[in-house]
Design the sequence.
């Protein structure tokens, strides 16, 4: 338990540092590092043995983040469909070259591993860069709030769900996938996380010289939805682990498992929040 608490506090401090230093290289470094480690973890879980396939998967992950987060700033113009087709063909060629040891399943799962979390985490960088595209309504303070909003929405929903589940939990949420999760815990996580983020929104509006551009009623809805979306990510990761008969994706984080064990909720929350922002600004700005 002591090791788990220390690891949790360390990640908490790192999260706060990322929020404070949103416009420093720290978020970029963390997105690349966490993404590449997650690809390696998943490929190991999926039983991939071809070392060149690891190189392809991790390499494509890095290129994907660069394209999604920086293509506009760097003036990169690449047809993403063509790039994907070349990548898929390269993976399939490895199944022919290493036939009998490397299978189509390995190629397909490598493609999934190299695109899932890297694509999700790149949404943090895309959100931060929205201050350039919508600078007339967004400020740097707003972007720091958004990074907090995503991280806190995932973390606090887990925390409040744990306490509510222990205290009031009676009805299993998904006993076959995650036996410890309860409906009562989910409700507690939704309410607790939403309250924290709504308070953060009010602070943001008081501190920033411009109010946050999304209506409060919409932010309340998103605040309530974020814990639900995060829970879907958590359950999805649990389902993958059940499919492969493992308890954790790895052991890199003492007391918590692997990178994917801590990124499961965030991998769903970040794209969800980015999608809400993008659609809202495209329709209104």
Sequence:
């Amino acid at each position: 338990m002591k090791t788990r608490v220390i690891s949790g506090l360390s990640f908490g401090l790192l999260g706060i540092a990322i929020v404070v230093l949103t416009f420093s290289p720290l978020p970029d470094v963390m997105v690349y590092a966490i993404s590449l480690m997650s690809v390696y973890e998943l490929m190991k879980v999926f039983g991939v043995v071809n070392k060149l396939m690891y190189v392809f998967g991790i390499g494509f992950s890095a290129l994907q983040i660069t394209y999604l987060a920086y293509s506009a700033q760097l003036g990169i113009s690449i047809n993403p469909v063509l790039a994907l087709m070349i990548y898929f063909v390269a993976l399939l060629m490895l199944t022919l070259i290493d036939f009998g040891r490397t299978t189509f399943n390995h190629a397909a799962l490598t493609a999934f591993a190299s695109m899932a979390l890297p694509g999700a985490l790149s949404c943090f960088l895309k959100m931060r860069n929205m201050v350039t595209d919508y600078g007339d309504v967004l400020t740097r303070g707003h972007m720091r709030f958004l990074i907090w909003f995503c991280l806190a929405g995932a973390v606090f929903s887990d925390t409040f769900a744990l306490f509510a589940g222990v205290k009031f939990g009676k009805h299993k949420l998904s006993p076959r996938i995650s036996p410890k999760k309860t409906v009562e815990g989910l409700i507690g996580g939704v309410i607790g996380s939403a309250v924290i983020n709504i308070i953060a929104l009010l602070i943001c509006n008081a501190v920033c010289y411009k109010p946050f551009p999304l209506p409060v009623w919409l932010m309340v809805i998103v605040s309530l939805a974020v814990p639900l979306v995060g829970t879907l990510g958590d359950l999805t990761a649990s389902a993958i682990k059940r499919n492969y008969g493992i308890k954790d994706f790895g052991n890199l984080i003492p007391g918590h498992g692997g990178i994917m064990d801590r990124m499961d909720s965030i991998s769903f929350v970040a794209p969800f929040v980015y999608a809400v922002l993008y659609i809202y600004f495209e329709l209104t700005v």
User: Anything to note?
Assistant: The chain has a mean pLDDT of 88.
